[in-house]
Amino acid sequence: MTVTEIAPTSAAALEDVLSAAHGAAAAWAQTPARVRAQALLAIADALDAAAEELIPLAQEETNLAPARLGGELKRTTFQLRLFAELLVDGGYLDARIDHADEAWPMGARPDIRRVLEPLGPVLVFAASNFPFAFSVLGGDSCSALAAGCPVVVKVHSGHPRLSAAVGRVATAALAAAGAPAGLLALIYGTQSGRDALLDPRIKAGAFTGSIPGGRALFDLANSRPDPIPFFGELGSVNPVFVMAEAAAARGAEIVDGFMASYTLGAGQFCTKPGILLVPAGSGMVQDLAAAARPAPALLLNERIQSGYVDALQELLEHPDVRPLGGTEDALAAPPAPSLAATTAAALLADPEALITECFGPAALVVAYENDGELLAVAEALDGQLTATIQGEDGDALAPELVRILAGKAGRVLWNQWPTGVSVTYAQQHGGPYPATTAPASTSVGTAGIARFLRPVAYQGLPAHLLPAALRDDNPLGIPQRVDGTLAL
Amino acid sequence: MTVTEIAPTSAAALEDVLSAAHGAAAAWAQTPARVRAQALLAIADALDAAAEELIPLAQEETNLAPARLGGELKRTTFQLRLFAELLVDGGYLDARIDHADEAWPMGARPDIRRVLEPLGPVLVFAASNFPFAFSVLGGDSCSALAAGCPVVVKVHSGHPRLSAAVGRVATAALAAAGAPAGLLALIYGTQSGRDALLDPRIKAGAFTGSIPGGRALFDLANSRPDPIPFFGELGSVNPVFVMAEAAAARGAEIVDGFMASYTLGAGQFCTKPGILLVPAGSGMVQDLAAAARPAPALLLNERIQSGYVDALQELLEHPDVRPLGGTEDALAAPPAPSLAATTAAALLADPEALITECFGPAALVVAYENDGELLAVAEALDGQLTATIQGEDGDALAPELVRILAGKAGRVLWNQWPTGVSVTYAQQHGGPYPATTAPASTSVGTAGIARFLRPVAYQGLPAHLLPAALRDDNPLGIPQRVDGTLAL
Predict the structure, then answer these.
(1) Domain match, A222 and A311 both
(2) A60 included as an active-site residue
């Protein structure tokens, strides 16, 4: 791995970036959605065309394999194209038209029309673990640009040269597509990120990373004289609940699926299943101890590797935790995938220490004695990105467990694995704190565009002053809710 | 006015309230939306039936006239009934179904379905100025109950006995409708409100009131180990821009409309137009000075009256502000409606002092010299609930002014007045900070329900474990977005 640092953005350069983003906001917001869609397609095409340059750079800076990086780039450009479709559909605008109505029961109502409009320049803090899909042109930037907002990306220090290259390709594509200058810019260094977050020209923040880092930025965004929305995706242990019937019916299959999921990408996924609950006495603990593990793999960078080793060591030093396999090489470099084991009773006695994210190829296996313990662990959880049930149809406990987990997690899975987050219309990648700082938002899927929009109502405006989305003749051909009834 | 204090809620009583709200959350969330709708209708009927008890109590505690209070109660019960309709419609759930698709371009996608679910117990801080519509069973409580959330109301100290009576009527109606115990409760006293906001069982806060009070609670909500969404509606000056053509064509009519709007309810509306921009030399300043004013009226209570007098006095002491009429009795009790005057140049030189809310029957008239000054004032605004244009069709400046104001305000009006906020599907009562702490939300209108919901995705669940809203057979008959396409 070779990471050449890029100098931090100077205060003068940051001022230029913010000034240009502010300057681009009005023009981009007024650019018709179909034209914004063309610009997203232009970026997607340009990134695909640059794959042969970008993937080796990404590999050099992140230790990730070319095949995985190729898939991630494909996901990234697919996402840009899907958001381009969304812009043409127009349903995301939530256009509402209430005509004036003398007979409105609370008293005559005026003509009021409401549509979602862009928030203004968005500051995106790139993540380390997906150098394409959650970085310079990842889901946050894609959502914000689609929404009509300029984007300033605070580059992740783990892959600065790749970021610069992606930024160069994308800004060239945007310029060729006629987008306003300053619409997308990159900044480098922790201080420039903090300074930008406090600048009044920035109207929202987005972040993917650790709980301490995300919380610090969330607090900073809220400390402003004019606080702004901050969409942080922080931490999650993504628990998996194996029910007794499932363990009996297909314990070995579940072990295989779990081993593959928690070690995928060397355990560096935000949806890595970090806790697996299995019935005590089912034999699954022994099967997990004996299961074959993939080879050791370098983590993204040395800082992440040392953080991982520290967290795992602390977990293993807990008096109620024992190594379950793989631990002989777990603290080496590169680390071998490893498991630790405890009981549900121990977990419930010390949830803060044991329900904790360990970013890397490790997980905690928790043996539970009965249904009561299983439900108690579910109730003890903090907010999660995902929660998974391995169960059998007709399990009497399942409805209650689904209900509890739906209150804790953004996504509840049944007999599947949480890693591999598909970009779709119904995807939800979020959850209550600390999974995110904004429980009503998602950072994956088309609904992510809503983060960077705010409603504006227009009362009594003549047609020529209304946004096209709100005209009675519906020139954009989008869904409109007219007098309370949705019309397509 | 007679306000008899009610003792602050004790720590033990608060614990009972929070415990009961937490206990009611699951049952209410699982109550079918149509049954929740019946409960809202039961509250509406019970409040209407209790009008003869409630309105005199409200009059005693707030100095507001019976006719106004009767209209407000009607608005409040209408709102409950409108939200009941919304629950039956089901569009607010934003139900999305993505079937599994092997051919999905980024790679095979699983079956994922997403719906909005209640956040959990909501703490509502009642407002002083609308003792029905923004208080115990006002828009915040109505939205939260409709969403499926228990509600704890921190009663406003200005109308405690009315609040207790409304609470008693509503809880009896809920009990008769079969709602879970603890679904709605009242607490009294500043400390109990702060304590409740910090309690982990409270999952969101809502507030209507002053900028300092709202900001303190917003900061408290964000200081929690697990920060929660806080929907605060704080302050707004609701500027009105009179364009030159309109001043020439119908200056006298605009003066009449403005006088009626800024003095409505003794100027104690959050949408009171507090700043009126008029063309210098148009004669409007003189017309405003000479206009007839309604009689002096008592404000809601002595604290509000003294706060108003202090704010107005400070404004009048500004070197660039002169009294324009009514000021001889403006600082008396009850205060006479009054106007002050300044210039756009002075306003732009000292916006912090001059663009400031003065809660009560006063407004600032600002003479501008040219279009450039008009646009500069628009650009200098903070976030607003409303911004109004008085213009003529075909005005060349209007499109630019609408665009700027849409970036500053939640609602933009044309040739109407901002007071009188209709409860409709397209209403937007919100705006960037300091108008609110959550620019994407509204506290009036059916879209207000979204504040108390969060998305949950279900991946791979068998039909019998899915929420009814997400089933392929659509038993609720609600709008569903299926594989990206909205179906009614």
Answers:
(1) no
(2) no
